[in-house]
Amino acid sequence: TSCFIVCYSIANRTSFDNVKSKWLGELNRYGKHVSKLLVGTKLDLRIPNSKQFVNTVEGERLAKKIGDYKLRLYEQLVAKKDTQGEQLVICFSSE
């Protein structure tokens, strides 16, 4: 395996918390030297200034905090524009 894409729903804070509390530990255990990409999905569902949703600053903060996991990129995707996801994977795989 050369990379893991770690996704959470911007509209579901529990999924974001699970990335921090569960998934990154698992990835570190089984893929310590593998690049990881953090992706926030469902950007189109976010309501500005709502505490219910994960905001961009929180996502970027998590990406920086886990820099030792070789997390090289933080992105947010809109589900209705699936070409954006294709571009993200192509960009990440070319690095």
CATH class categorisation: Alpha Beta
Question: Level of helix content?
Answer: 40-55%
CATH fold assignment: Rossmann fold
Strand order of the largest sheet: 1-2-3
Distance between the termini: 15 Å
Unreliable runs, pLDDT <50, ≥5 residues? 68-73
Sketch the major β-sheet. Answer: 3 strands, parallel
According to DSSP, the number of beta strands is 3
Query: Tally the helices: what do you get?
Result: 3
Shape verdict: elongated
Report strand %.
15-25%
Name the descriptors.
single chain; 95 residues; alpha/beta; Rossmann fold; 3-stranded parallel sheet; 3 helices; 42% helix; elongated
Description of the molecule:
- There is one protein chain.
- The chain has 95 residues and is an alpha/beta fold.
- The protein has a single domain (3-93), classed as P-loop containing nucleotide triphosphate hydrolases (Rossmann fold, 3-Layer(aba) Sandwich), CATH 3.40.50.300.
- The chain is 42% helix and 21% strand.
- It has 3 helices and 3 strands; from the N terminus they run βαβαβα.
- The chain has helices spanning 13-30, 56-65, 82-93, and strands spanning 3-9, 35-41, 71-76.
- A 3-stranded parallel sheet has the order 1-2-3, sandwiched between helices.
- Strand 1, helix 1 and strand 2 (35-41) form a beta-alpha-beta unit.
- 23% of the residues are buried.
- Mean pLDDT is 72; it is low at 68-73.
